[in-house]
Write a structure and sequence with these properties.
VC0802-like, nucleotide-binding (chains A, B), about 425 residues, ATP binding (chains A, B), eight-stranded mixed β-sheet, Carbamate kinase, 20 strands, EC 2.7.2.4 (chains A, B), about 25% strand, four-stranded antiparallel β-sheet, alpha/beta, homodimer
């Protein structure tokens, strides 16, 4: 079970979480009790407070000491949840990253989990004690605290689930599952009983911020059955068995669910939108071998993630316009870098636009069906929405449109693919 | 070097501390640079905030999880001081209790330091890196975080100083040294250049809250030269060599200082007061063997510290009044416990009084001189101050008086022993 910062914000909310954990650990109606490990985030706002301290202390901070400071937030909530569980008569103890130990590799503040070999913790869980694990933190090769980067607690949870051979990894969030699209935009959005890892990866990477992308990838690799569900479900804490959210499963398990009639096979599973990209157009780039490499190599070296790329052959022979998108946060840096290389690349003008949105339709069903993309283009064009760029993967079609048309496009597509809930 | 919570309260104050540390680590006027380890407390108020969380989580908290929560305060400041030192161009890194490791024994939340075997930390210090150590925390035998109890950071500092074989352990506080008495009461109080461990122990135990008693005891045992000095010394950070506070030294070193004319040998070194005691009188206790044991055994079992004890043979034969003092915080508990045992002890009435103060004169000089006590009694009686009880040790005479007369008594005695500063 994993609980995020909003669920852990203050001792009252922690008591709520403790009730949910106790309900899960207790015997269910069939007389089966669960062995439980819980991964917790810091109290909402605490990590930002600690990061601010670090910035005030040293603008160019040493990530190893930054890790010492920020990892304390999860240490506090893991102790407090253990204490609260004990007050409810539920045996519990905390296992800090260095105690377990959760061994990590890679740079401080963006470490990656390498191995969890925690026989003591497993024995404690088997003896009926709830293991409470601070998310986001592990132990470096040098024996120091290493954090996994923002949102790393989801990944901690999946890694712990894999290490203890858990039946399921339940991620409790402030939404109660994965929806066909953002319910704030489309009132008729439906909660999905299940999505596949690949679908969730595509949805996570295009702005459906339910799970951290890395955690989904790890779950897929390790075969951990993930479930997304809400920790805000009224006053009576119930176990996940009684109030399920959305399961994230393998293709095979999805096939079984469809065969059993528990899921309907859809062409499109969900529709995501992302307003955090920015578009860059370089005009009149020489259309010769190597020109494009001059553009994208320096961006890659600077770890700027380029997403959609389109090359339009220009009106003038031997020249072309190159359009691509980067995260809005990196736009200024990318632009400066490109202007720096203007002579090498040989473009005429650089045009940028942050006022764009990426709309994506995602579904494993489209692997075996043509026509998904053309339905999208037709539906958008029928409502006069102009498509600025297109990119596709095996289970996703994305288009770039004017940001003002985001909500309209999402609603139009939700209806076009037959996703609207029936009253 | 050890800095308390007031000195560490916020990133601005931590920058001040970092400047003091850097000045100490840098070359002095003789071209000698110091190898430095720094022990830090949590930001003022932070430990109380964390303790409150624990109480809210579980009124009868598990001290092992309590330790996980409260130790985070020092973890944060050790990381922040390291970052700040680095920003000033001073190499530094944090060494958490479990990393060093500082091995402890005894119960969680009041553990005692057993050994510090930290070759890596020593190597790092010798390589010119400032070691920043969170106070108050160590590692238990079971490999968990163990805290030393409130004020434990002073003890951490002395233990680290002993472990690394430091020339000196400088305790930076919000006062600039040890005074002949509380300067808020006596304007003519003088800062002492040096006191002996024994004197400091007596002064610490009777209310001069400059150093934690346990840390002085450990320093005496390990032969660590302690210095008390202020971290608030104007804007220019200077090293302790340039602005000394009060040294706490052995009897032998004190003799040397006197021989060299650096210190004057005084009969009385300082005068302390303590308003945190309460008096209990049990009237008409049977004057027979074992009666007193019935009173004090249960108090000792409950860890209630009984200080002064007087037995007055009563007016009636075979009966006696027993007077003693306990910490005010334990008064209610002690009273309830005694009333519970009323039949066994066989007293007539229980009379309590919190409105008392203990005044102590302390000095190694009195070992070899009679008349110190009589000077005290004479001086107090000349001003009409009634003495309710007396207790003595080899280097201390304490009396119990009415709390309202505290300041008067301290001033009278400060003058009587010739301690007033000469303008």
């Amino acid at each position: 079970m994993k609980f995020g910062g909003t669920s852990m914000a203050g001792t009252e909310r922690i008591r709520r979480v403790a009730n949910i954990v106790r309900a899960q650990a207790a015997e269910n109606s069939e007389g089966v009790s669960s062995e439980v490990a819980v991964v917790v985030s810091a109290m909402a706002g605490e990590t930002d407070r600690l990061i601010n301290f670090c910035r005030e202390a040293n603008a160019i901070y040493d990530p190893a000491e930054y890790d010492v400071v920020v990892a304390s937030g999860e240490q506090v909530t893991s102790g407090l949840l253990s204490l609260t569980l004990q007050s409810l008569g539920c045996k519990a103890r905390s296992w800090l990253g260095w105690q377990m130990p959760m061994k990590t590799i890679g740079a401080h503040s963006k470490a990656r989990i390498e191995t969890i070999d925690a026989p003591e913790m497993v024995a404690s869980i088997e003896a009926g004690e709830v293991a409470v694990v601070p998310g986001f933190q592990g132990l470096s090769l040098e024996g120091r605290i290493a954090t996994l980067g923002r949102g790393g607690s989801d990944t901690s949870a999946v890694a712990v689930a894999a290490a203890v051979g858990a039946d399921r990894c339940d991620i409790y969030t402030d939404v109660d599952g994965v929806y066909t699209t953002d319910p704030r935009i489309v009132a008729k959005a439906r909660k999905l009983k299940a999505v596949t890892y690949e679908e969730m990866l595509e949805l996570a990477s295009v702005g459906a911020k339910v799970l951290q992308t890395r955690s989904v990838g790890l779950a897929m690799k390790e075969g951990v059955r993930l479930q997304v569900l809400s920790s805000f479900v009224g006053d009576d804490a119930v176990s996940a068995d009684e109030l399920p959210g959305t399961m994230i499963v393998s293709d095979e398990e999805m096939d079984e669910l469809v065969e059993k009639g528990l899921m309907e096979r859809q062409l499109v599973t969900g529709i995501a939108h992302d307003k955090n990209e920015a578009k860059i157009i370089l005009t009149r780039v020489p259309d010769k071998p190597g020109a494009v490499a001059h553009i994208f190599e320096p961006l890659a070296d600077a770890s700027i993630n380029v997403d959609m790329i389109i090359q339009n052959v220009g009106r003038d022979k031997g020249e072309t316009d190159v359009t691509f998108t980067v995260p809005q946060a990196d736009l200024a840096r990318a632009q400066a870098m490109l202007e720096d290389k203007a002579d090498l690349i040989g473009f005429n003008r650089i045009i940028t636009d942050s006022h764009i949105a990426k709309i994506s339709v995602v579904g494993v069903g489209m692997k075996s069906h043509a026509g998904v993309a053309s339905t999208m283009f037709r539906a958008l064009s029928d409502r006069g929405i102009n498509i600025q760029a297109i990119s596709t993967s095996e289970i996703k079609v994305s288009v770039l449109i004017d940001e003002d048309e985001t909500e309209l496009a999402v609603r139009v597509l939700h209806t076009a693919y037959g996703l609207d809930a029936v009253d």
